[in-house]
Design goal:
Elements lengths: L7 E11 L2 E7 L8 H5 L11 E4 L2 E9 L2 E6 L1 H6 L10 E6 L18 E11 L2 E7 L13 E4 L2 E4 L2 E3 L2 E6 L1 H5 L11 E6 L1 H10 L7 H10 L3 H6 L7
Length: 238
Amino acid sequence: MFTGIIESVGLVRAITPQGGDVRVTIQTTSGQSGTQKKAMGLSMHDVHLGDSIATNGICLTVVEMGADYYVADVSGETLRRTTLGQWKAGTRVNLEKALLPTTRLGGHIVSGHVDGLGEIIVQRQDARSLYFEVRAPRELARYLSEKGSVTVDGISLTINQLSGATLSLNLVPHTANNTTISDWKMGSLVNLEVDVLARYLERLMLGDRAADTLGNAGLSEAGVTMSLLQDSGFLNRR
């Protein structure tokens, strides 16, 4: 698990096709001057083979590593669900190592399992912060809430407002200076992960119907309905 608090910005060093999927090599420093955090890069001294590193919000397993890089295998499912298939050598990526029991939860609980792709549709300066609007996939809208948390390219952010499946975000200078946000442009696609509690709550409410394929399909279409709340014991029957 992760917190969505970015530790460093790295670079894609190489993407190598591997019989239908790919192997990606990530350089743990961005190679750019700027803030101290960027210059230092991600420390690999406590990383071991098999550890997880969130890379633009994607949980990747370390299969090879060195002092300033790591290598991970990427499945076809990850290529289909995320922006990774668009990466190329030189793409900047947000990096965060898996949290420890003693880690401060400065963001929110993040699994590194991307739920879908969002699109940047509005971008402008708002005083000293940057304002963005992101259009999320329609099927993710029910997991989003005003002032709730969402992970965008691995960054834990607070949703300002919601309009249907479009969410607005304000990013303070520190976040903008220590992540890849400056690379976002109109039309850019970003990895989205909804709050894990919202995802599991919906599943739990199905109860015994969770094993029923038709039940799952019905929930996907209708979402959380009054009848579902009543059947699940959240409303009194009259």
